[in-house]
Amino acid sequence: MRFSVSSWAHSMTFAAAALAIGGGAFAQTSMLEGIVKGASDINIYTQFIRPPKGPVVPRHGFGAGGFGFELSYDFSDTVVNEPKNAVHLQVGGVPLRLEAGVGYDQSSAYKFRNGGADLRMSLRDLPAFSVYISPMYGLVSPAKEILLGGTPYFGLRTGYLTFQSAHAYIDTLSTYKLDGNAFQLGPIAGIFWDFGDFSLFGETSYLMRNFPSVDWSGPGSKPGTPAVLPRGFDLSSFNFYTGLQIGLKRHARMR
Known about the structure:
13% of the residues lie in helices and 51% in strands. With 255 residues, the chain is mostly beta strands. It has one domain (7-247): Porin (Beta Barrel).
């Protein structure tokens, strides 16, 4: 999809991956170098999450927002990979591109639906994993014109979710810390527009994000958990992404 390789992109990718995983140990540094070296693209995106159906909803009407980062790996491109090592897929004679992504994202600006307490939290997905399938060389007319020159892709996303800096304030003296984790899973579909050195993409997904049980820790002088604080969250919702993909390696040219 993308063709040029730039040293600054590799440097920025390594720095972002280091921040995502954390730590500065030599073993981690070596591992990160190997991860970045094998990547074919870097994706940077924003996300918007529509109000879920559970007790926690976005604080703003347009949805919760956040940012994400992903390294992607192209397994089918014979320019990126040795021809003998490339994964050759096709449907109806159309060659397909198989890619995988690993990264993280974080969203914030949530509140309780019932307004019984003031909730402040972020939802972090680390690590996040995705698999994508798309036409190897893009579309041909008339489908190409219908999508304004874009190429569709489909896939699956999963990841490990945790609450970050999550607290509920019931009054001026009572603060309860929220802890919990869960896995997410759901289908994704999107369109990307290739501009040579980079691509722009738009994507939507429905992700199942269910926390059947969460932990609240509050003031020692107040045993138990107030009834106003939910015992579990269902944050399953539609998600929308827009972003930029920068090529770290040369790819086979689109039509």
